[in-house]
Write the structure tokens for this entry.
Amino acid sequence: MPQLRQRQRGSHPSADARLLARPYTPAMPGKPGLHRLGIGGRRETLLYVPEGYTPQQPAPLAVMLHGAGGQAQHGLDLLRRVADAAGIILVAPASRASTWDVITGDYGPDVVLLDLALRQVFERYAVDRARIAVGGFSDGASYALSLGLTNGDFFTHAIAFSPGFMAPPDQRGKPWLFISHGTHDEVLPIEMCSRRIVPMLQQAEYQVTYREFDGPHTIPPAIVDAAVAWFTPR
């Protein structure tokens, strides 16, 4: 596989960016609705399980990451509007600092937190192993791409709404990728960001669905709908 050029952030030890949690038959059946996982202290991690969830039908899972300065609710809100109709379980952690660890230093505390959250989810809920996504907006999108490429033997899909960069210390597996970006983005300009990222990924032989839209640093509802239809085709 062609290797991606990576943004340098410290040593990026691969092991520190690897997630170890994996789905299995739930030992403690969980209920639908909104749950606080009780990890992360004041910066809580949220879980939303769609109304129609049943353990007899494993559900798609999406880990959704907030942008810089955000919190778990912001990550949850990225797909909350469509979660029930699409039957998607949502996990929304909050970064330990103001943004995700690799953006300010190296991988570490946020990966540990996410692994703990996923272990709790897998203990209680049946997850479709063919539909496990990591996604996010802005800094969360950059982190989603970075974790998704490094853990592509776990994540089957990655959704990046207006990413700024990617910094995978390693490449495992070949997750499918959905990337969107506004042509008038003044926070993370498209020419410096997605229009550089997408060709690099295509050259590395990833399957990329790319959507540009006429707008600023945001996520139009139509883009959310397109991403969900791509992730959970009916």
Q: What stands out?
A: The longest strand covers residues 127-137. Residues 182 and 215 are 5 Å apart (CA to CA). Confidence is low (pLDDT under 50) at residues 5-12. The longest helix spans residues 109-124.
